[in-house]
Design a protein that fits this description.
- The longest helix has about 70 residues.
- Helix content is about 90%, strand content about 0%.
- Helix 1 packs antiparallel against helix 2.
- By secondary structure, the chain is mostly helical.
Length: about 90
């Protein structure tokens, strides 16, 4: 009789552990899905911001190239040339 009770308790404990593991598995799966969604949102945001910053920078560089060809005083010419030389927009 004692063996049967002990066996029943082990089975109940085992079942409880399985239920806890299953609940943990569900939580981990949800966390993984949330992380994937967050990564996708971050990548999308970075892409939009990258393109959003690139266009104005190209416009500014185009204006600097035009200014290089204009007659400017030497201090302005040095500044414009330095800005063009040090700019890196891909």
């Amino acid at each position: 009789m004692a063996v049967a009770l002990s066996y029943t308790m082990v089975l109940e404990e085992s079942q409880l552990m399985m239920e806890k593991l299953e609940a943990r598995k569900v939580l981990l799966q949800q966390a993984k899905e949330n992380a994937v969604k967050a990564r996708q949102a971050r990548n999308s945001f970075q892409k939009v911001m990258n393109n959003g910053m690139r266009r104005p920078m190209h416009l500014i560089l185009s204006l600097l190239f035009i200014l290089q060809d204009e007659k400017t005083i030497s201090n302005q010419k040095i500044i414009i040339d330095t800005m063009v030389r040090t700019s890196t927009v891909q």
